[in-house]
């Protein structure tokens, strides 16, 4: 279950609440993955330099919302105002590998990143999946420029790397694509919207028209546009542009997808390979969210079902805490790896709170080689010093991070760390001493 968001936030700060945007109040099953594509994130030079050193406010905001619910930030990529964030449930981490990110500038003839695309691709249970967040050129007359830029972005993603073409993935393409409604005047467009006769406008939507003519777009699929055009609104309202420019409404914010052409991948015997037979994408919901008014665009979400026959079904590493854990003694971690696992001296095992935000959000870690205490053909043991274990205890889990694969390849079940009883007893004794001293203090106060 994948929930995908695209939103041109118009340099605004995050809103107070995104419960409905992320469908956190839904009665259905929870999402497995959130993919959030933002455009026009504040990228003034002071903000951008600050964001390079620290997580930007939007990333921090979504991590704060999603990490208590058991999601971690799997990947993020930023190019000036374009930001792509991917969050995933803990349970899927060992089955997501080969994560790569890329960006392509198309503004100012490719020298400026105010327009272009940011992409993340990964191997999900053995299937290649790619997410592409784009901000294409504005204005009704620039259709050809939009198409040229998108074709360039498709060609340049992961160019020169030993990675399949973007079109060899299950590809999700979304963003502020800036396609407009051609030919019809503003009064006809607004009247059609007011009467909810959106179908009258579909045939003049520039993206719909382009999909009929351009070969490279014809395999992209989109759900029906059964919501009001999402651009351009007065701020904090659901009223279309009342400024002097009176921009014509348009479906600028879109989500499309493409499952690689099965006919191109048939084997010589005329049969499809195992991978092509075992993946499908279903759109469950494609809507806009009119209640958000921080920018002149309304956010759009798509909720998908990805049906995958797992080509990877076992984690590369299985790991567990040994015995009861507390900060009163050193502790042991046991782990085992599959024979083909490409281990490295730089691999490490991290101790994380169950609400950790991303892979660098560990409490402490142990190097798998330097901190090894025993080894046999079935499993190995690594120790962590008592000094590194949190005194207050709580619920934690362990993750094995592979340096060669640049990803988490094993995760333990959540487990309890017992509080440090020595520390608690010391605190209680101190409190008792403080209480015993109080009558004397009162007596001396009365005498004074």
TrEMBL record:
Residues covered by the Inositol polyphosphate-related phosphatase domain: 1-312
GO molecular function, one term: phosphatidylinositol-3,4,5-trisphosphate 5-phosphatase activity
GO annotation (BP), single: negative regulation of glycogen biosynthetic process
GO cellular component, one term: ruffle
InterPro entries assigned to the protein according to its UniProt record, in alphabetical order: Endo/exonu/phosph_ase_sf (IPR036691), IP5 (IPR046985), IPPc (IPR000300), SKICH (IPR041611)
Superkingdom, taxonomy of origin: Eukaryota
Pfam family, one: Exo_endo_phos2
Family of the protein in this entry: Belongs to the inositol 1,4,5-trisphosphate 5-phosphatase type II family.
Annotated protein name in UniProt: INP5K phosphatase
